[in-house]
């Protein structure tokens, strides 16, 4: 075997092999190898097993629901504790900063971002299955929360009139009432998101994330990054705009930013630009020299400390009217009951947020699980995030998932387990208890700049589009479509449109599948397309069609078209033309202008042959009184006919349908296949099936596919079995022409066309008009 893992064609043992076995149809194979019946458990048996209880089963269930019972007893204190401590401290600093920054996206006071970076970790530590995820706010999810919060509690709902002692009153905004309402809405939304995630996990619906394909997620997160950028630019510029939400909201925001660009606060702009540049440069250094730097430089923390000190020392708020954080709650707030009466208004938004948050977390978790050779349970992750969001929602938090940058920091600094996450939560707790007052002079533009600097990874996904276009154009279109719709329509509608568009592409690919004809590779049992390979021969008189899709009501018409295209003729049209020619021949025989013998049709030399009338002339149903006598007529349809009817030539005697790639059939497909077989049999073309899966054959039996002329001997294990069977049949046939039409004409007058039409109606076959 070669070093690459491929078989070396030069080695003698790999040059060829010989297999000797009988030609198997499905029926002959079943006669020799009896099918083993599988034991089917009843619903009662399944429920009994599900509800049975034993010590071993109880322990297994407890460990599956509380994964901490599985990994904590195996924790290697001496090997892992130091690494987890260093990782936890580093991640905690980043989580503190990002929690405050992402609170701006969620449209709530920055202090509540610290709570959102703390509480979810406590429950995920117990219920989560990933060792490396850093739980907390994420910009995309925070923005989705913020968009909903702004739609429910815009500034216009909190306008108050202030009297200044003159005739005119001054309008203002009750910021305290506004912020309190927004925190209530965000926390209530978080609880509902957690309930939805918990229910989906309990119902074992973790598979739902599979419908969020990578191109869809890439386009969606890139659009979200653009939305985040726009929302943070106005904070960096310290420009006040209306809170737009919904369709074209990003366009309206950009227009208003450019209209008010003249009111930019220079101090905030300079601080924001410096923060963005410094953070991006240092992050690039961390990436390039990550193998040489034991711990990534916590640049966000450093910049925040320096910016806070400068703002406090220079007093930027008073001298330059800079926007600062101002008040941060010190300590923990008591738990608060969410506003349950708002659930009905936030059902749609909460479902989309629940799925997106879960999809992001599981996608990141699978990357690190694969890297470190362990598995994560998708359904248990739904449960873990559901419990975390329900728990944190009672403590005025907004929706938690995982952040790529925090998780990368936790892993790259040596984090081994969720102990690192727990230590990071302790660092956030210290910040909540002790640092709130110290961070109040911090400029909001610095926090917004930290958010923007962390968007680089999501914007870099744009470079995936050319690669996707080269690899799979449909995936590239899904990426672009989802991105554009999410930017224009908003994240919730954009995600829905992207999901529906992705499903539509799947439907279209199934509805218009590919197929090809096959030929034999000489001297082998291999079959390839003659259009794609040289020296591939089609068996004489045999057409092999390979169909690469399930067959159902949506693509059965496409299947019929593929058959016509491959065999080169329409079986129904051929039958109609032959029927018309036979009617003309019968008329001429009745008139005595043609004589029918056992060897064929003989023209009367003394009579004028009126059979060569134009093909489109109407038929004359005139009844001729000819003595009753049975006459046998033989017609060679591939030779010149004594009547002028353009009967298409049929160059094949057998058709093989390779259904190896057909995964299922529905009742419409089964009925249509039965009609197709009959249509070809009427024109003396035998139809055979090859390589069908057992469950597809079972479906044919269930739907009553078999009839008098449709038997199990038509089904073969492989295409080669079918070809060998046909060739043996052709050798044993008599010298009689296989495409010779034999009919018996009873000269006692009955309209043959009427009889044949009635027979076709009984068979359920359509006869096309000329």
From TrEMBL:
Keyword Transport included in the entry's annotation:
no
Q: Name the InterPro entries for this protein.
A: S04_transporter_CS, SLC26A/SulP_dom, SLC26A/SulP_fam, STAS_dom, STAS_dom_sf
One GO cellular component term:
membrane
The listed locations are: Membrane
Question: Which key words are in the record?
Answer: Membrane, Transmembrane, Transmembrane helix
Please classify the protein's predominant subcellular localization into one broad category. Answer: membrane
Q: Membrane-spanning residues where?
A: 102-127, 133-153, 183-209, 266-283, 295-314, 342-361, 382-404, 419-439, 476-508
Protein's UniProt name:
Solute carrier family 26 member 4
- State the species of origin: Sarcophilus harrisii (Tasmanian devil)
Protein's gene: SLC26A4
């Amino acid at each position: 075997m070669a070093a690459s893992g491929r078989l070396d064609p030069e080695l003698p043992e790999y040059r060829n092999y010989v297999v000797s076995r009988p030609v198997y149809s499905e029926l002959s194979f079943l006669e020799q190898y009896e099918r083993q019946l599988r034991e089917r458990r009843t619903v009662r048996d399944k429920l009994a097993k599900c509800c049975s209880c034993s010590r071993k089963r109880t322990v297994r269930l407890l460990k599956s629901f509380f994964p901490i019972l599985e990994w904590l007893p195996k924790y290697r204190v001496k090997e892992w504790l130091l690494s987890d401590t260093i990782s936890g401290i580093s991640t905690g600093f980043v989580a503190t900063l990002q929690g405050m920054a992402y609170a701006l996206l969620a449209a709530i006071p920055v202090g509540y971002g610290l709570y959102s970076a703390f509480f979810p970790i406590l429950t995920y530590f117990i219920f989560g299955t990933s060792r490396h995820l850093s739980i907390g706010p994420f910009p995309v999810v925070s923005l989705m929360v913020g968009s909903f919060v702004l739609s429910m509690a815009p500034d216009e709902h909190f306008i108050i009139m202030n009297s200044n002692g003159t005739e005119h009153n001054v309008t203002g905004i009750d910021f305290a009432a506004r912020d309190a309402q927004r925190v209530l809405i965000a926390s209530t939304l978080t609880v509902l998101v957690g309930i939805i995630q918990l229910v989906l996990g309990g119902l074992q619906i973790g598979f739902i994330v599979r419908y969020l394909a990578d191109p869809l997620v890439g386009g969606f997160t890139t659009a979200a990054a653009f939305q985040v950028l726009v929302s943070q630019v106005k904070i960096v510029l310290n420009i006040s705009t209306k809170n737009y939400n919904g369709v074209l909201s990003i366009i309206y925001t950009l227009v208003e930013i450019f209209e008010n660009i003249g009111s930019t606060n220079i101090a905030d702009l300079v601080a924001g630009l410096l923060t963005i540049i410094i953070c991006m440069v240092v992050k690039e250094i961390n990436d390039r020299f990550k193998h040489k730097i034991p711990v990534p430089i916590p640049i966000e923390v450093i910049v925040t400390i320096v910016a806070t000190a400068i703002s406090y020392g220079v007093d930027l708020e008073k001298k330059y009217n800079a926007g600062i954080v101002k008040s941060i709650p010190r300590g923990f707030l008591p738990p608060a009951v969410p506003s349950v009466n708002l659930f009905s208004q936030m059902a749609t938004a909460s479902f989309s947020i629940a799925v997106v948050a879960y999809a992001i977390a599981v996608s990141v978790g699978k990357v690190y699980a694969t890297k470190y050779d362990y598995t994560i349970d998708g359904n248990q992750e739904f449960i873990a995030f559901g419990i975390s969001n329900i728990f944190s929602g009672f403590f005025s938090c907004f929706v938690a998932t995982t952040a790529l940058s925090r998780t990368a920091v936790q892993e790259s600094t040596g984090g081994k387990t969720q102990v690192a996450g727990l230590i990071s939560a302790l660092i956030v707790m210290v910040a909540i208890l002790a640092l709130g007052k110290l961070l109040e002079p911090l400029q909001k533009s610095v926090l917004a700049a930290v958010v923007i600097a962390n968007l680089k990874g999501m914007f870099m996904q744009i470079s995936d589009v050319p690669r996707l276009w080269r690899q799979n154009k449909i995936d590239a279109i899904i990426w672009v479509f989802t991105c554009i719709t999410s930017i224009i329509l908003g994240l919730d509608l954009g995600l829905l449109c992207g999901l529906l568009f992705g499903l539509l592409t799947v439907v279209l690919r199934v509805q218009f599948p590919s197929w090809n004809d096959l030929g034999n590779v000489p001297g082998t049992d291999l079959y390839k397309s003659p259009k794609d390979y040289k020296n591939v021969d089609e068996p004489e008189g045999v057409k092999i069609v390979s169909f690469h899709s399930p067959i159902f009501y949506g693509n059965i018409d496409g299947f019929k078209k593929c058959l016509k295209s491959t065999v080169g003729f329409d079986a129904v049209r051929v039958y109609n033309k032959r029927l018309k020619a036979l009617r003309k021949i019968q008329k001429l025989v009745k008139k005595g202008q043609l004589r029918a013998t056992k060897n064929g049709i003989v023209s009367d030399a003394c009579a004028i042959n009126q059979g060569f009338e134009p093909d489109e002339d109407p038929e004359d149903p005139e009844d001729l009184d000819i003595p009753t006598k049975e006459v046998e007529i033989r017609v060679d349809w591939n030779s010149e006919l004594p009547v002028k009817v353009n009967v298409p030539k049929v160059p094949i005697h057998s058709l093989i349908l390779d259904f190896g790639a057909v995964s299922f059939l529905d009742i419409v497909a089964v009925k249509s296949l039965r009609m197709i077989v009959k249509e070809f049999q009427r024109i003396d073309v035998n139809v055979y099936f090859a390589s069908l899966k057992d469950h597809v054959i079972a479906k044919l039996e269930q739907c009553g596919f078999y009839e008098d002329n449709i038997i199990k001997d038509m089904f073969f294990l492989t295409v080669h079995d079918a070809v060998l069977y046909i060739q043996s049949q052709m050798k044993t046939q008599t010298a009689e022409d296989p495409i010779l039409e034999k009919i018996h004409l009873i000269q006692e007058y009955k309209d043959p066309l009427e009889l044949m039409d009635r027979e076709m109606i009984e068979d359920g076959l359509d006869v096309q008009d000329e």
